[in-house]
Amino acid sequence: MTRMSKTEHIAPAVLVKAKRKIPAEVKYSTRFSVRVKFMDGTLYPNNTRFDNLTVTLHNKDVKLGPCRFTTEPHIDGFAGRLVFTDQVYDYHELLYGQKKWALQNSFLNLPFILDHKKQIHQQFMDYTSDLTYDLSVYKNMFDSLDEEYQDEPPDVRAAIQQAIIDTEGATFLTYFEERLQELGRLVADFSSEEHERHGFYFRRQVWSYIMTSAIMRRTNLKPRGYSGDSEMMRMIYQKEVLGDTTFSKIMHKHPIECPAAQAVRNRRILIAQTLETTRPANPLSQNERFKVLSVACGPSFELHDLLKSPKDCELYDFTLLDQDASALLEAATLVDEVEKKLDAKVKVDYLQDSVRTMLTTRQLASKWGDFHFVYSMGLFDYLTPPVARAVLTNLYQLLKPGGYMIVGNFHVSNPSRVYMEYWNDWVLYYRTEEELQHLLQKAPQADQVVVFEDTGCQMFLRIQKPRDP
Ligand SMILES: C[S@@+](CC[C@H](N)C(=O)[O-])C[C@H]1O[C@@H](n2cnc3c(N)ncnc32)[C@H](O)[C@@H]1O
Q1: Which residues are within 8 A (CB) of 260 and not within 5 positions of it... i.e. 6 or more apart?
Q2: Statement: residue 364 has pLDDT above 70
Q3: Whose C-alpha lies nearest to ligand 1, atom 13?
């Protein structure tokens, strides 16, 4: 379908003023206003109010209600702009989404959201209110300190800020940690429904503090619709202390240094090491490359650890699979960087697909190929048991005889779990070692072992397919 540009689309309209109908034409101006041409030739003064605007869009009359006219320099006969005064409509959505979407729609849920607090345990309310008071005191203090030295030269400012982060910041983080432990104890016996309800309430209370932290802001707002997108992963891997103010830096530093974030950095190294140590088990013929599939590859940061010399680049033939085109683009950018740095070519295929395709596609190997090594980090934590079982069993079919597979999953004992769920709105499927092992079905001969990375937050199921099945 070809889409008309916003500025091109002129729609017939009728304005009503004191029961008089005025023929008009309107066109897109901004999301929440339209340009208007009066067809009766009248010059209406600035701020004229109209009782109603009806626009004909996609052969339908759409009644948009009262609006106000502001004069602007005439261009192509358009006399000025109309803004809605009662319901505020999104004109872009009307034109392209074809939905009558009012800015106030979000308020429809308001009674339900306000009622939410009636189902919150008193002890939890007390905890939250106590915490928000303390956070506001701390934030004020850090913000006031920032004011004190804001006129210093940039390098002096940076040195002062670092000193504050290392001293008062560290004291604040000790306090913050203690309150997290307390939160953990408070919700330890909650059902999953209680966690969801109290987590929602909690985030409404600490929202302004969440928004100060670059990573927590992203995990909560989920601009790509899910937690764990490649941009969040990049923040964790790069471990840079982001933020405009001292407080925002501290609120970013804490989550990217928590055990679960360290586990993510550890797994990147663990994958590269496992690949290097298992490769000799699959001797290759001349000119053959070691075929590797990364499932839900994200930004593929681990390729930095794996490809250290031009010779390394000649060894592998990668297939990077992810459902998210932006993640694949970031992976491709990273491969490009590696190629430039090493002055070598990396053999990579990019597959934009969902692992759910496996559940419906027969003969997957003819579609995706077969591999010496298949790995997946940060995917199984999002899959329900039936889907995880089907995906793992299908991935196993893609292994060549003697090939290895390694898949990660956060362990039920993850000490950052409550923090991730309550502050970061990042909910995972946690598993025990047995639950992870039981995901692999129809592979009785496979050699399986579960290993942990150093923090113990995350485990990995390592599987070798027998050479002679
Ligand atoms: C937490 S990130 C992990 C990325 C990377 N493996 C890492 O460890 O850095 C999760 C990735 O899984 C991808 N993903 C989630 N569900 C998927 C699905 N059903 N099929 C393919 N990719 C999926 C997301 O797009 C995202 O890039």
Answers
A1: 410, 414, 415, 416, 417, 419, 420, 455, 457, 458
A2: yes
A3: 296
